[in-house]
Design brief:
The complex is a heterodimer.
Chain A (H helix, E strand, L loop, with lengths): L2 H13 L3 H12 L2 H26 L7 H7 L8 H6 L3 H8 L14 H12 L2 H16 L2 E2 L7 H8 L2 H17 L6 H25 L1 H5 L16 H23 L1 H21 L6 H21 L4 H23 L2 H7 L4 H4 L1 H24 L6 H23 L2 H24 L15
Chain B lengths: L1 H10 L16 H13 L14 E2 L11 E2 L8 H43 L15 H14 L1 H34 L1 H6 L1
Antiparallel strand pairs in B: 1-2
Helix pairs in contact in B: 3-5
The chains are: A mainly alpha, B mainly alpha.
């Protein structure tokens, strides 16, 4: 009884992270403690490489890796980005700048320059024409029909809902659920995961709906579905509603009203507070950290039905983790933020940015130590988590002191594996069989 | 599979895509011109004659926004026309803002780099002939200054953008509902 919910919950948690880790972890549990630590080290190394590559490839691309991304990114339709850099598109410029509002009374071409362009080109010499035609054929190919193909829809919706981020959010919720005391209820767990996943999809879709012109101007986000015209704003909103309503309903009536309320609140916080606030004040980072902290709290409340100290501890760990993660990431995006009009600490208050990142790395140490005090884990946890907590704090300190691209990237990539590993360690050191009356752990 | 595709096509209007017109018949004059254009391959802004959807182009060099060529169906209703005009106008407005923003940014960045290099006593080109640049830490001052200088401009833009985005989406919804409604009562129309 004591071991089965633990292994099951651990498995489910790491299911979102990688199959190889799942397998190794299962072996680890069955192996001796000595082998256990060895396997964990291997697992974390393997996982670092996998996640490192996955994230580098897809999500967090800095300007340095722009070419790498364009080569690796799988495309259903060729975007032909190398062409964009090289083509002069002087005609494109003329076309766009000279656009006049369409006069509904006429049934002629919607743009007068198009007409004159046609006449000019028709009367041009063949030699001149052929050169232009060569360039234009290239440009022509880049124009895509805005037709929604049903085959493409799953891929488009996955990108719209930031499916990978959603998967990470659901895995933090699973961790919260698994770490909560009491017997492990599989159906409740699944309902919570699905509900949280749907809520996250909805929130991410609305975020993209609001940010189309800004996303177009940032390298990291310029290939999103709405930016590329693969889906309409109306369909995006419809999809978000179709995710939010069942998601929150599932959480409210399938799990408990508290979890449902937290889910709804988180959607609101992310779409209506964080997203607009990004362009107004640096306080958006703190709001965003709360958004990231709520999912594990939801997992906990789904399992226990109440907001205990353990829920706040987990929320606190996720909250503190957001700062080294995001501040380090934002350090390399300062140019895009400045040009796009985003108010981020890394641009407006760089010293504060680094200070806060370091501060929260140290907070992670303190929160890990608080875990056994609150009865969430045994005292083994802060001890075995000490190396990774010290390491991230060290990188946080280097970032604080050096304030350069290299240290920011190191801190960022460390944060990517630090959190899942920390949660995994918490799970393995979970305080089992706590006597609720006396508060004393049963042996 | 083919049957599914046909089904998908038929379902397009009810999916709420404002661009999927009921009829693909272009006006004769325009059709002829577009046909000529297609044949002589002179303009990339004229979509194929058989197309009844909007077309989206590559990102603009200055604004990074993708221009959309709006399809004008023959039987465009008042609501559809209003939507299309709003989208066209928003596109131009966005294009102007971002083109201006990006061009200004690049210009001021160049000026900043020049002034800093001059202050350091360095030339505009390195020994190898490459354009001299400053590192990210030196550029940070410029980024901060640029952001704060344009803050009010962004506030106004944000407010307008949110309004337009909501309006466009609302009109899209209205057009979609109108289409669904018209589709559901063709019998009534023919009988009366």
């Amino acid at each position: 009884m004591a071991t089965s919910p633990h292994t099951l919950s651990s498995r489910l948690l790491t299911g979102g992270v990688g199959g190889c880790v799942w397998y190794l972890e299962r072996r680890a549990v069955q192996a001796s403690p000595h082998k256990f630590m060895h396997l964990f080290r291997n697992a974390s190394k393997q996982w670092v490489t996998f996640q490192h590559f996955t994230f580098l490839k897809r999500m967090y691309v800095t300007q340095l890796n722009r070419s790498l991304r364009q080569q690796i990114k799988p495309k259903a339709e060729p975007v032909a980005s190398p062409f964009l850099e090289k083509s002069s598109s002087s005609q494109a410029k003329a076309e766009v700048y000279e656009m006049k509002p369409f006069a509904p009374s006429t049934l002629s071409l919607p743009r007068k320059p198009n007409e004159t362009e046609l006449i000019e080109l028709e009367s041009a010499s063949i030699i001149e024409g052929s050169v232009d035609v060569g360039k234009e054929t290239k440009d022509e190919k880049q124009w895509k029909e805005m037709k929604l193909r049903v085959d493409d829809l799953p891929g488009i919706l996955a990108r719209l809902s930031k499916i990978k981020l959603t998967a990470l959010v659901v895995s933090t919720t699973s961790a919260g659920f698994a770490l909560a005391p009491g017997p492990f209820d599989l159906s409740c767990f699944l309902l919570t995961s699905v509900g949280t996943g749907l809520a996250s999809c909805a929130a991410n879709s609305i975020n993209q709906f609001f940010e189309v012109p800004f996303d177009s101007n940032m390298n990291r986000t310029k290939n999103r579905p709405l930016v590329r015209g693969q889906i309409s704003p109306l369909l995006t909103v419809t999809f978000a509603a179709c995710c939010a309503v069942p998601g929150v309903a599932l959480l409210t009536w399938g799990v408990n009203p508290l979890t449902g309320a937290l889910g709804l609140f988180n959607i609101f916080l992310y779409t209506c507070c964080y997203t607009p606030l990004k362009r107004v004040s640096i306080a958006n980072t703190w709001v965003g950290a709360v958004v990231g902290a709520i999912p594990p709290v939801m997992g906990w409340t789904a399992a226990t039905g109440s907001l205990d100290a353990g829920a706040f501890l987990l929320g606190g760990i996720l909250y503190s983790w957001q700062f080294p993660h995001f501040n380090a990431l934002s350090w390399g995006l300062r140019e895009d933020y400045s040009r796009g009009g985003y108010c981020m600490m890394s641009v407006t208050h760089p010293a504060l940015c680094r200070r806060v990142a370091l501060r929260h790395c140290l907070a992670l140490l303190a929160l890990s130590a608080a875990a056994p005090a609150l009865g969430v884990t045994t005292w083994t946890f802060p001890v075995i988590a000490l190396p990774i907590n010290l390491y991230i704090s060290y990188l946080g300190f280097r970032f604080y002191r050096d304030a350069d691209r290299k240290s920011s990237r190191k801190l960022f990539f460390c944060s990517l594996w630090h959190l899942p590993l920390l949660l995994l360690l918490m799970l393995t050191c979970k305080q089992r069989g706590v006597d609720r009356d006396s508060g004393e752990p049963q042996s | 599979m083919a049957a599914w595709r046909v089904l998908g096509k038929r379902r397009l209007p009810t999916l709420g895509r404002a661009f999927a017109a009921r009829s693909c018949r272009l006006a004769p004059e325009r059709g002829a011109e577009c046909g000529e254009a297609a044949r002589s391959r002179v303009s990339r802004f004229c979509p194929p004659r058989t197309s009844c959807h909007d077309w989206i182009g590559p990102p603009d060099k200055h604004s990074n926004l993708r221009p959309v060529h709006f399809h004008v169906p023959e039987d465009e209703s008042a609501a559809e026309q209003k939507l299309r005009e709003l989208r066209q106008e928003t596109q131009e407005w966005n294009q102007q803002f971002w083109a201006n923003q990006n061009v200004t940014f690049r210009k001021e960045k160049e000026e900043f780099i020049h002034s800093r290099l001059k202050a350091k006593g360095l030339g505009l080109r390195t020994e190898s002939g490459q354009k001299a640049t400053l590192n990210a830490e030196e550029m940070a001052d410029f980024y901060k200054e640029f952001l704060s200088k344009n803050f009010q401009k962004h506030m106004h833009y944000n407010r307008d953008w949110y309004k337009r985005n909501f309006a466009i989406t609302f009109f899209m919804g209205r057009v979609a509902l109108e289409r669904v409604w018209n589709k559901l009562r063709p019998k009534q129309k023919t009988s009366s």
